[in-house]
Amino acid sequence: MAQIRRDTRLAQLTRSLEAVAQPRLLEAQIDVARAPQVAGADSAVLSALQFAIEIEIATLPPYFCALWSIKAGSGPVYRLIFNICLNEMLHLGLACNMLTALGGKPDIRSAYYTNISYPAHGLPDGVLPGLVVDLGSLTHDRVVNQFQVIETPEHEIKSTLRADDAPFTIGRFYDALATALPAGGWTAGKPVTDGFITPQITSVTTAQAAIAKIKQQGEGTSALPYADGTTLAHFYTFEEIAQENRITGVTPGNPPQLIWAKPPDPALKMPECFVMKPIDPGGRYLNPPADVAANLQRFNVAWDKLLTDLDAAWVNDDLGTAVDDMTALKDAANTLFSAPPFDPAQPDLRYGPEFMRPL
Fold first, then answer.
1. DSSP secondary-structure letter at 170?
2. Most buried of 67, 148, 172, 205 (most Cβ within 10 A)?
3. What's the distance, CA 277 to chain centroid?
């Protein structure tokens, strides 16, 4: 399991949040469910919410590339990954709404170009620094060794460590954030009110519910693989894809064991995919053919417009334009993957999205 260094922005923010939360926990007799009794957002909370925005958006390019590489553009595995992408966009929206409700301003476009590129060692600012995160097609190896590592439940990480070794994980970060949230001040800004982003953020209680949703949809709980009782958390959805089989339930006991469909569900057989040409160091393809370069630019322009309109959404309370941008982004990706093969010896090899600033 890739470990997280202790000198990173993730570690620093987690320490700051825990320092904010500790007096409140003592007042609440170490009851983390009790709302903090201090009004007004600490600067650590605002910084942490911006950090959460960057973490959530950083997962989208790798997941999108895997999704769009599926030749059929549909099917059970396609729908599973598509739903994970929807969840990640919801998590991004919830983090933005929490920050806006406390008077902050989400920074999406600038933060993305400053802190995120691929291939990369880990997610932004020290999250999983030993993990190489790149953009590529859906493969068994990428599901197991990248996506499941990103979504690994905190209780599984802890089970591999000594009792006195507390790692700085995304789960610990979100726990500290939930506890450090202020009791008041939740009307300082106007969150986006689009019905996709639920729960709406109006108080510390709804903000803590939003953080619980982010955690549960990503990693589940320590007792169950489900985010909401029926829908699998991301880690276990990727496990279904890796195993090419359906999880049908869990056994009683502690810890419970997964129950798999017998015989294996043929609907979850790994679909046929295009093979995405690896992106060169620096995040761009070097010297692509002219027609490919034009299609790469078209995609990057569509991505840049989406980032720009996401920034604007939290100023104008208008998520509709950004939602429309997603159609253009998918169309630009499909143009890359559906192009004629450029190497007769590798008929499935294609250039793929770069998710870079337009040239």
1. H
2. 67
3. 23
Beta strand 258-260 with 275-276 is: unpaired
Question: What pLDDT, on the 0 to 100 scale, is given for residue 95?
Answer: 95
pTM of the model: 0.89
**Helix or strand holding residue 132 (H, E):** strand 127-133
Is residue 133 left, alpha or beta, with left meaning phi > 0 and alpha meaning psi from -120 to 50? Answer: beta
Q: How far apart are CA 229 and CA 250, in angstroms?
A: 11
With H, G, I as helix, E, B as strand and everything else as coil, classify residue 232.
Answer: strand
| Over residues 7-16, mean pLDDT | 75
Structure tokens at 73: 């553009």
In this prediction, residue 237 has a pLDDT band, given cuts at 50, 70 and 90, of very high
- Give the DSSP per-residue string, 265-300: -GGGSPPPB-EEPPPPTTSS-SS--HHHHHHHHHHH
CA–CA gap between residue 169 and residue 150 (Å, rounded):
10
Task: Please choose, from the candidates 114, 112, 123, the residue with its C-alpha nearest in 3D space to the C-alpha of residue 146.
Answer: 123
Q: Which tokens belong to 86?
A: 């929807």
- Closest Cα partner for 240 from 122, 147, 132, 157? 147
Answer whether 199's CB lies under 8 Å from 169's CB.
Answer: no
β-sheet bridge partners, residue 121: 132
Could you report how far apart the first and last alpha carbons of the chain are, in Å?
A: 37
- Burial bucket for residue 234 (CB in 10 Å: 0-12, 13-18, 19+): buried
Q: Kindly state the tokens that stand for 51.
A: 């950090």
Predicted confidence band at 29 (pLDDT cuts at 50, 70, 90)? very low
**Cβ-contact 220, 233 below 8 angstroms:** yes
